[in-house]
Amino acid sequence: MIQLAHLEKEVVRICREVGAFIRKEAAEFDRSKIEFKTGFNNLVSYVDKEAEIQLVGELKKLIPDSAFLTEEGTVQTNAEQEYCWIIDPLDGTTNFMHGLPIFAISVALAQNNKVILGVVYEVTHDECFHASEGGVAACNGKPIRVSTISTLNESLLATGFPYYHLDKKDVYLEIIKLFLEQTHGIRRLGSAAIDLAYVACGRMEGFFEYNLHAWDVAAGAFIVQKAGGKVTDFSGISNFLHGGEIVAAGAVHQQMLKIINELWYKK
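The structure assignment produced for this chain is given below.
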């Protein structure tokens, strides 16, 4: 039987070890080795791929018969397994390649499609956000909670700008405009995993974005939930893991959802 508290510690250890590799590569990164996945702004490097290989190799030792859902697809596994690791080896690749020190490792574990463990390791500042079912959300071992601020006009929000489905860009910009008028501001950090981790520890009151993948949000969303926050898709239901839309927040979640709903689903 899996001991989640012990597993959480092991995943934190593994993320820190792989993070050390990423940190070393960041100091001497060769931009000539940048690759393009599906467009000029969807980038990948040998660092992403090697970090993923290292993560998969170590996590496989923890649960030998587990499956993997990974961004870079360096491993092919049976998705029907009871346990599945959901991995983004370097969330914030564009930041990394430009020397902007905002990028993270994101690792979640799902059991029968339900996330039960999440780790987001912010590499540059050595901050590890982590949680498991039955425990509490923490950063570097210290408990964290979402913000208790209950009004948008006192809130700081985060979002991202999607690379695809740009047919929705105008309505999305309208949503951003409304939030800019009603909050302390909006930040675009370039890493959904870090955005979610910062919501979990109360540095920002909420995060919203669309066109995301499971590996972008699985770990961070789980940590937000364990920190007392609420996570939904734009319609307010729980289909955020594979649905591509996410709203994560503390006390302002419903207020954010109302503004997004009124514009996103407008005929």
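Interim note for the steering committee: The helical segments are 4-27, 46-62, 93-98, 169-182, 192-200, 214-226, 253-264. The chain has a mean pLDDT of 91.
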